[in-house]
């Protein structure tokens, strides 16, 4: 390493956006260039930390190339019921591509606590990724199909004893039916606390309900969707995802080792290989968690691969430094 400038370039290539942004002012003599590098690094850090609420913050600033802004905005979670474009509520596929890229980057950096957090997020919203083809969107409460409230539907009915939803899922699904008419604060609170429960509840409706109601009668090809959702629910209960809860990841007491992660994933692949959708996890697709992109693609019903968005932000920062 010949100089501090070379160190910044090396850090940028390792996706260490926070470090590069913090050090650029001390290393670069041109203040305007240092400010530009810091702004792009802040953008990259938001993506790396999956700060989906703020992906669109300041994205109209000309310092961020238009293509990177567009791709980030596709992963952004709208902060008001009427915000346009709808970002991740139009489609979760760009967000899952970013999740896969983040998982790979965190694995390569051996930042396993952050990697397991990304795996956990992946598990929470997989059912909505499965539902996207049927819904025409990825679970936007402002665009729920009328069939969810068809005569005889128990979707969102609190205290309904024949419904297989838990009490918290009943509360979340009921809230989802009216949250589009709430102010922005209520909308954000719903996504912070309840939207992931709605994702699981939707999967229960098509894959696990013992006394089905009319809530899902509108679904075309319900059998295929049921298999996708059953696999999504199974992923959320795999040894890999449970590893985050079994070890106090994120609580300051310990983080699983790479060997523990790979062993948990080996057992998870065996658990998931129970049907045609889950069998895709056995594919050798070159990912650190071998077969995970293939599994996500099978659940989505279309190819979903690591995004390359972080890599392109990294290369843009390097170009600014050089």
Describe this structure in words.
The protein is mainly α and 322 residues long. Among the domains are: 4-91 and 309-321, no CATH class; 146-217, no CATH class. 57% of the residues lie in helices and 0% in strands. It is built from 14 helices and no strands. The protein has helices spanning 4-13, 17-27, 31-48, 66-73, 93-108, 112-135, 167-178, 184-193, 195-207, 222-236, 239-246, 258-272, 292-300, 309-321. Helix 9 (195-207) crosses helix 10 (222-236). The chain is globular and about 70 Å long. The two termini are 15 Å apart. The model is unreliable at 247-252 (pLDDT under 50).
Helix content: 55-70%
Give the number of helices.
Answer: 14
Distance between the termini: 15 Å
**Share of residues in strands:** under 5%
What is the chain-wise order of helices and strands?
A: HHHHHHHHHHHHHH
Q: Choose one word for the global shape.
A: globular
